[in-house]
Input
Amino acid sequence: MPVVPDQSIRTILNHPNVKAVIGDINQEQQERLNYKPPICSVFTNKYAILENVDGYRFEIDKETEKQLPSLIHNRVQKVLGTDSPGADIKERYTKPRKIGIVFSGGPAPGGHNVIAGLFDAATKANPQNVIYGFLLGPDGIIENETIKLTKELIDRYRNLGGFTMIKTGRTKIDTQAKMALSRQNCKNLGLDAIVIVGGDDSNTNAAFLAQEMLADGVQVIGVPKTIDGDIQVRDADGQVLCAISFGFHTAARSFAKEISNLCTDSSSDVKYWHICKVMGRVASHLALEVALQTHANMTLIGEDLADYVDPKRIEEAEKAGTIDYTAYGMTLRHLSRVICDGIVRRAAVGKNYGVVVIPEGVLEFINEIQIFITKLNVIIAEYNETHDATFHKTFPLLEDKLDYLRRLARRSREENSIPVWNTRDDDLFNDIPEFFQEGLLMERDSHGNFPFSQVETDKIIMGLVKDYLHILKDKGLYKIGIHRDYYAKIMKSNSLNPDTYGPILFKNYHNQEEFLHVDQAIISVKTLKQALVNGQLMKENEKIPAAVEKVYKKSVPDFKTQIHFYGYDGRGSDPSQFDCNYTYNLGLTVFALIANGATGQMAAIKNLEKDFSQWEPIGIPIAPLMRLEERKAKLTLVLEKSLVDTDSIAFQVVKAMREKWLAASPEEDHYRKPGPIRFTGKSEEDRPITLVLNALTDEFDLNP
Output
């Protein structure tokens, strides 16, 4: 090809049509940048004030009361709008301020709008107000790395995904040295307030910072962020204060769109089972929402597995006069059997394909695995605590780690104490596959948590599924159903009488069922020939009729899987309209809390499960929400995560629809197409389906 001269390239690149199509900003992004989220009615007034709200009850942890004495009695605060406040309120609201904001933890769609809402409210109250962004997460606070946020900068990120504007990080301000540096840097900047946008650990950090910085006059406000949806706030009586954290809706919709595409592919190619692992280290909220959005054939909900009771094992134990403690809680082996059952039943009606959704943290709800994780967490944390080197640097190879565990097991026989790791643990651990051993022994995250996202959960479960399907196949229990009309057509086209061969080939030939099932004893071409010989339809020295062999081979399943992981793509998505509106109003709420002197509060929007007109901006006290949890083998105060409530309407609906969505019948599959995140348009959903369903709680009595 001829070389294009440099001058010609410059001419091409400067052509308006070329510039339009290769520019960084496309038409939809421009629409996003121009979009102005609606604001809650209280923010239509010139000023916002706070009102303490009674009627909410919290169970106070004694350790929280001890460590956060100045915040423990904070109350829920409702944001109200006014155009004519008292002179003292007006003066306080409009005084010049310097506010710092930081993103902490993984990105979640909508974070930029929190900054935009805060900036707009602050500059509206006083154009002299300054907003600083701490760069790269809490490290920016510790190292005093900041950027002054301007309207020009913020306008480039309105309604866009990611935390790109100021970046994020996972450092915790969890030592006196880090706290001292943070306090000094805030003093140097002359900050009046810090806003921490993050998950449970980050909001926990916000509470401790608020306590430490109270004497310095620096307010600290938290904002609930996590795509996992595990920050949901209820009081001790179950009253909902915050139905979901921001970013959840967008991530769920993003995952659902991709998984819906796989449902379409699966039912088109009819030869793959798509195994879809979705983020959710502790809670299965994303998996639940994806199930509602897509109607995937099978969706595992970890919290449901934890509550599992096997009545068959209980009955057998009662007959034997014993108690089978393994009957309470799902085992990994039984879980694989549940999945196999669905696969076999679909194959029986000609559907040797489907979609399974698995939350990444599902193993945490399997008793045997949870015991291993808990024990290994303690062993690794104790080693790191008592040695100069870390566990994973001292024992870099799997064999090194296993040898250390063996030594612990031997020591358990010699010492007169209750061991963390005994010989039974060691024997059971050595029975599991090597790759899974490596997974369970991998390095813990910065909080001491087991890194579920790095474990091939799907590979572990599906390995057991494949093994059991092979057993069922050998037993003649796993076969693809043959449509009666197809069988008749193939036989007649080869001048064979279907009714002659049917009773020999199929165990249900006379039942008039739509799908025929090859007899259980026929598991190979050899056993097929033997059945035909025994039925006097051929002789030993004859070849099996080609049509008959073709029908048989059509019934032999070839179980093929495609593995997918949905996580980082969803958390980096541009926010849905719900998350755009939610986060912008969270930013407005943050300023309302700061301007009225609040600290140690979490900005939230009440009534998210209802229509936008009923949204109520509030401040929720963080300290009363904190509980002691084990982190790095120590009890530490943290904000309590919210798990899927198996009594909720959303879960009960999914449970009730499991059989229909499995579609183990000749009827069509019931896949639902959620469509892309359109951002605009009348058909765009205004909130997560989970919230829509749970909003109906008051209309139904689930415990008659």
In short: The CA atoms of residues 300 and 358 lie 5 Å apart. The two ends are 79 Å apart (CA to CA).
